[in-house]
Specification:
- The complex is a heterotrimer of chains A (348), B (331) and C (354).
- Chain A has 348 residues and is α+β, with helices and mostly antiparallel strands.
- Chain A has ten helices and 17 strands.
- The longest helix of chain B has 16 residues.
- In chain C, 29% of the residues lie in helices and 25% in strands.
- In chain C, the strands form three sheets. Chain C has an eight-stranded mixed sheet, sandwiched between helices.
- In chain C, strand 6 and strand 7 form a beta hairpin.
- The chains are: A alpha+beta (348), B alpha+beta (331), C alpha+beta (354).
- Chains in contact: A-C, B-C.
- The interface between B and C is medium-sized, with 24 and 28 residues.
């Protein structure tokens, strides 16, 4: 299953190789051209010879992970996060390094702690990975500084109609993008699987500059905090209510007319849609929207509970609805551009 | 079924702090004499009521003692200092009335505090309305205990009183013994000193060597404003204890109790308590171990002079206890 | 130490580790233990508290030697199901709340339901939040089911275990949950295997005890039932890690830790040390000034008193789901115990007399 394979691949910012290779294999039979640019973005085009507005679909390949920054004298590994990880979720986890080496992030036994210690969260500086090495030399023989450690999490069906796994942010986006590419369209399409989103939206900046599309749709995984008795206004998005359309975040303020267009289309096609009720975070749309003279951009996200931890949850319903909605948007876009004035103004 | 709640009222008002449970024992003995074969008190003061039978030896335990205060010092002006007996909530004591075995009543006061954080046990004193040590000594001695004043009130389906912990357990045990047609060998033990360490239960169990034990005691609820999350609520039935600090109820016992309740349409609720313990905690580890369960009565404001419970839960508890005693389940 | 023995010990430990047996709910582990110990002993039975007894008769059947290792693990229990179908829980045994976030679990209702102890997304946290450990009472378990479905399969009082397989790290180092004290149970198995190759005078009863994590309850009752002449408990102890410098001096891979102190009968400590020396088995010394925090504490004062010893397997990250030990220490512990038993004098009185 596509999502499962993508979720279980390991690839963080600056080290997306395995994900890129897999994606390349998947899309080769259904696209016209493929290239990998100078920073590692995977770019594919379809229907390049057709006329019409050029639409860019993008999803990022990198997941948050850990980078080994030091080996202690006893052979333990010190690390830092690549992208935003709450250190509190790291304790008592198993990680994989270089695809074959397993290590564990332990914690001082509860019996050895003072009560006040138990109240304080452990920070990155206090944590380390144990690979069972007996010495610094032995550890150095197996691991190099700069190697990456990834969570070990199986992607599986969960509960009713849900999936659990790691890296749904943004392997769901990558999976949806692959499935979209298998269809045919009337207009030129470019798919960008970007790199280094998690550490500053870096790949997107480059890709937008190079491609200069007329319109961009970013497909993401986003926060769903609809947990337990957390107040509804703090949920941001909710599982099972469809993809979430962004209104605003730290990196972009989205055009209200476009958002209305998306909402109307979703309503007309009876596809569930919710809004991302929160302005925290950012994504590739940020640099894309302000690239060169500006690019009309929208973001559609699949809600993920427990995002940026070792295991997240998404709803199959949301995944499918997101896929369908983007497919409908792609069909409608050529017509939209003929009628609307926004795109034209922004492209001047 | 008609339960004699007036009796419960009397029970709650009897003076019986840990270590001085005689009057409670006497009352219960008088009530139960016609319903048993043998009746005795042991070294610690446990009241053991036996009804012979074939089958298993089942021990039912409910504790007679209530929490109280023990006098440790009488000062020149006749004010008393004290130490708590059992889980007394120190912050709740100021302004409370307490009563001694001879009926003398006093009010708890607190010294003037420089900072609210200074509030501790040694800042409290008991005022029994005298003006000098000599006068005080006419009414109380050092080492004597006092219990809370809290009269018994029926309010709709609720009951409010002091010492429902665990006079309600005693009451339920009494009502069950009067009603049950069980063929098993029954030993109803009204225990002492539960509040200070389940001590009566420990010795009674060692002596009796039962095959099975059931304790009846109170538990907390999670149904008051911004309560610590807990699923137990007043009026939703008798609690079947899953866990507390003194015991993890075995899955077989849990299942048996729930099956019997379901079978007889007795409303029950699962009870998980994150602190505290009961007599079964001591009994289940006696000798080589005794399979044990607990019937828990949901109660608000435990260890205050105005504990509150619901009659429906009490009725459910009596029904369940009777049903369990008559159940021939093999364990 | 043959590779085969290492393999079989590792397999049994992995099996036990992945199994569910929270304090008071050890039945499935008990079955595994009974099955494994049957071919190694003369009689296997269990008592009302769930303790498993495996008797291996000695050739002169003089005294009763009790071995005790606990099979229960710490875990969680459902205490409330909220209106949106998320589960509130509390712990059974000493669970460090800091190890729970982002952990996969099984809720043992009508069937084992997978769940996740979730966390708040970093984007929504204030910086001050990041310094505070999330309290257990603020955590919930997400099982991804509707409230209606949940009520069909899950109830308040259902037990919850962590979902974790064992991982093989370098150098025979193994990581997983509940190695405390399933590793001790495996030590007993290795000991029984070794004893079948040796001659021993006294009867040996290996007891897999229950409910150690909530108050050494299985040990209390089983010691009473057996009333042995001598007992040795097998548990785990802390091994040093980068953050325990100055607090812990025992190390992984340097052999079992033999305890001494008031909880331990001095003659037993003596005899264990001598045996290790004679058999060239590595051991470390663990001085304990008071309670050992193991089954040994309860056993020592049962009935009229029982001479008790304690050996412990060095273990990192105790009470997390990634407890880590060296399988070599497990094998060496089993061997040490077997030789200790086989070399006990026929007349124990002499040995244990003060």
């Amino acid at each position: 299953m596509l999502l499962k394979r993508l979720s279980e691949l390991n690839g963080t910012s600056g080290a997306e190789g395995l994900v890129r290779d897999f994606l390349r294999q998947q899309i080769e039979p259904v696209v016209d051209t493929i290239l990998v640019d100078k920073i590692g973005n995977l770019i594919a085009t379809k229907n390049g010879r057709l006329s019409g507005p050029k639409v860019m679909l993008s999803a990022h390949m990198d997941e948050v992970a850990l980078m080994i920054v030091d080996i202690t004298s006893d052979g333990f590994l010190k690390f830092r996060s690549v992208g935003g990880i709450d250190a509190r979720i790291l304790v008592s986890k198993a990680v994989k390094i270089n695809e074959t080496l397993v290590g564990v992030i332990g914690a001082k036994a509860i019996h050895l702690q003072k009560r006040s210690e138990r109240q304080r969260a452990l920070h990155f500086e206090q944590l380390y990975i144990d690979i069972g090495a007996k010495s610094k030399e032995e550890a150095a023989g197996k691991v190099k500084l700069g190697d990456y450690a990834y969570f070990i999490t199986k992607c599986e069906p969960f509960g009713e109609g849900l999936y659990k796994g790691k890296a749904f942010d943004d392997r769901v986006g990558c999976a949806i993008l692959v499935e979209l590419l298998k269809n045919d369209y009337d207009a030129p399409l470019v798919a960008a699987f970007t790199v280094q989103e998690e550490i500053g939206l870096r790949g997107a900046k480059v890709v937008a500059y190079t491609l200069v599309p007329d319109f961009a749709i970013v497909i993401e995984g986003t926060v769903a905090a609809d947990v337990s008795d957390r107040e509804e206004e703090g949920w941001v998005t909710e599982l099972g209510k469809g993809p979430a359309c962004s209104l605003m975040d730290r990196t972009a303020l989205y055009n209200p007319e476009l958002i209305q267009w998306v909402a109307d289309l979703a309503h007309a096609r009876k596809i569930p849609l919710q809004f991302r009720r929160g302005t925290c975070g950012g994504n590739d749309a940020g640099p894309i929207q302000v690239s060169k003279s500006g690019i009309p951009t929208i973001v559609l996200s699949v809600p993920c509970r427990y995002i940026h931890s070792s295991v997240s949850i998404i709803s199959e319903k949301d995944y499918t609805a997101c896929l369908n909605l983007v497919a409908e948007l792609l069909k409608e876009l050529p017509r939209k551009f003929g009628v609307s004035s926004i795109a034209k103004e922004e492209n001047v | 079924m008609d339960l004699d709640f007036a009796r419960l009222g009397e029970l709650t008002q009897i003076f019986g702090p840990s270590g001085s449970e005689e009057r409670v024992a006497e009352f219960i003995a008088t009530q139960l004499r016609p319903y048993c074969d043998e009746l005795k008190t042991d070294t610690l003061g446990n009241l053991i009521i036996q009804r012979h039978g074939s089958g298993r030896k089942i021990m039912v335990a409910a504790h007679m003692d209530e929490i109280g205060l023990m006098i440790t010092h009488i000062d020149k002006a006749g004010f008393l200092r004290f130490t708590p007996l059992g889980g007394v909530r120190i912050p709740n004591l100021v302004g409370q009335r307490v009563k001694f075995s001879n009926g003398r009543i006093g009010t708890i006061g607190v010294e003037n505090l420089e900072k609210p954080n200074d509030f501790k046990l040694d800042k409290l004193y008991l005022d029994i309305g005298v003006s000098a040590r000599e006068e005080a000594e006419q009414f109380v001695r050092i080492g004597e205990t006092a219990v809370f004043v809290g009269d018994f009130v029926e309010s709709g389906s609720r009951i409010i009183a002091k010492a429902l912990d665990d006079r309600i357990g005693c009451f339920i045990a009494m009502e069950a013994l009067k009603r049950t047609k069980s063929i098993h060998e029954l030993a109803f033990v009204f225990t002492v000193q539960e509040e200070i360490g389940t001590r009566g239960a420990k010795t009674a169990a060692f002596a009796l060597e039962p095959d099975l034990a059931l304790a009846v005691d109170v538990t907390a609820t999670g149904d008051t404003p911004k309560a610590h999350p807990m699923s137990v609520e007043l009026g939703r039935g008798v609690g079947i204890k899953v866990l507390d600090r003194s015991m993890v109820t075995s899955p077989q016992i849990k299942r048996w109790m729930a099956d019997v309740a379901t079978d007889r349409n007795i409303p029950f609720q699962w009870e998980v308590l994150e602190y505290g313990g009961t007599d079964s905690g001591a009994i289940h580890l006696s000798r080589g171990g005794v399979p044990s369960g607990v019937l828990s009565i949901p109660t608000r404001y435990v260890h205050s002079p105005a504990e509150m419970l619901d009659k429906r839960d009490v009725k459910a508890a009596v029904n369940l206890l009777v049903a369990l005693l008559e159940s021939s389940a093999e364990l | 130490m043959s590779n085969e023995q290492m393999q079989s010990a590792r397999e049994f430990l992995s099996l036990l580790s992945a199994g569910s047996g929270v304090s008071g709910y050890e039945t499935s582990i008990a079955s595994m233990v009974q099955e494994r110990f049957k071919p190694l002993t003369d009689e296997v039975s269990c008592d009302v508290v769930g303790n498993v007894y495996a008797l291996k008769k000695g050739n002169k059947k003089r005294a009763k030697i009790m071995l005790a290792a606990h099979m229960d693990e710490i875990g969680l229990i459902v205490k409330k199901i909220d209106s949106r179908g998320f589960l509130r829980f509390t712990s059974i045994g000493g669970v460090d709340q800091r190890t729970l976030l982002s952990q996969e679990v099984f809720v043992h209702g009508r069937q084992a339901v997978p769940g996740i102890i979730g966390s708040l997304p970093p984007h929504l946290l204030q910086t001050k939040d990041l310094d505070q450990a999330v309290k257990m009472e603020d955590m919930v378990i997400d099982v991804g089911l509707s409230v209606a479905k949940i009520n069909e399969v899950i109830q308040v009082g259902d037990v919850i275990t962590l979902r974790r397989e064992t991982y093989s790290l370098l150098n025979n180092v193994l990581a997983g949950k509940s190695l405390d004290d399933r590793a001790g149970v495996v030590v007993m198995m290795v000991c029984l295997e070794e004893l079948s190759r040796l001659q021993h005078t006294h009867d040996v009863i290996a007891v897999a005890t229950t409910q150690e994590e909530v108050g050494v309850r299985g040990a209390l009752t089983s010691a009473y039932t057996l009333n042995p002449d001598l007992a040795v408990a097998i548990d785990v102890t802390h091994a040093s890690t980068p953050d325990t410098k100055g607090q812990v001096s025992l190390e992984l891979g340097k052999g079992p830790a033999v305890a001494l102190g008031p909880n331990i009968h001095p003659a037993i400590y003596q005899h264990l040390s001598e045996t290790a020396r004679e058999q060239r088995l590595p051991i470390q010394i663990e001085p304990i000034p008071g309670a050992s925090g193991t089954d040994a504490w309860a056993i020592q004062v049962t009935q009229a008193g029982i001479p008790t010893g304690l050996i412990s397997i060095p273990l990192r990250y105790m009470h997390t789901s990634v407890e880590t030990l060296d399988m070599q220490d497990v094998l060496n512990s089993g061997k040490l115990l077997a030789y200790f038993i086989a070399s006990l004098p026929d007349d124990l009185e002499e040995l244990i007399c003060y």
